[in-house]
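so my prof wants the structure for this chain in the tokens format not the other one, which i didnt know existed until like an hour ago. anyway here's the sequence
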Amino acid sequence: MSSTFPDPVSPSPEDVLRAYGWGEADENTFTAHRSAGLSPGRVARVDRGHVTVVTANGWVRAVWSAPAGAPPAASPCTGDWAAVRLGARPELAALLPRRTAIVRSSASRTSHAQVLAANVDTVVVVVSLAASAPAGRIERMLALAWESGAVPVIVLTNADRPERPITVVRDEVAALAPGVDTLPVSSVTGEGMDVLTASLTGTIVLLGPSGAGKSTLGNALLGADLLATGEVRARDGKGRHTTVHRELIRLPGGGVLIDTPGLRAVGLHDSRSGIEQVFAEIEDLAADCRFSDCGHVSEPGCAVRAAITAGDLPQRRLDSYRKLLRESDWAASREDARLRTERDNQRKAISRHLRATYRFRNRQS
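here's what i got, hopefully its the right format
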């Protein structure tokens, strides 16, 4: 088990759930489970067939079994609230509805969704000032964050050793993120950490590629070296994947932190609303196009193309917007097609079962 268990600050038993984010709405949702003799808990870590859950009675390691045919997104995830059957062999009996969820397309490129973290309030998109960060990757992570229902914050790490002037990078990144705070910090010198801490609320998740400084930033927020860190290669700015599990840990000043493994790929899964939020300036311009279904290609009266011609909107920005929308819509259509296929297969299986039953009855008569 990780060295982050038990948590560094142990609350009293009566306050433990509240310390991990439990509220009145959760209590109301849990009424039926409590009547069934189950106890509430929050999933802190998921391993194969087991989950580590924090309950009012302390940390427990519970077993769980996925229902037959259940999609991967229905499996427990770090941050989930759950109904736990305590005893000699604790068992995770049910998951409560997720208030928010960070969902991406699975790395296998199937139509299945993968939940990275649940019931998140703030998504910290981590970008290193010590290495170049592709604009497209930042836009993808922001779309993922907005789609989740949480509030994104961009943190520019390694402010003590920037590759380029901090103000230049900050302005470039801020242009990719309308309405999102962009904060340069240094986990080494402490620069900007007070401003960042004041911006974070509730359950906080760190997202970013390997080597961006997520675990180092997490340790600075925790006030202790609880998260493993690794060296970053000088030739390409990439780091080793020192975080291999998503873990939920209490913050000493209140709230909880979820550290995630570095994201090699950020596939979007039915994330149209998140994309529209990231590219809000294009959505605003499109409202002034002559045609409501303008494709922003060669249509007359296109306000988006006019902004590009005038130099007010970069062509790269429109290209990225289109690319992410195509990817999101493709994933959504694949999901719909998969669900239709599963329903058809279920109907066929039922029909085969009924025909076999009728044949058996006919033979007995």
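also thought this was worth mentioning. The longest strand covers residues 39-47.
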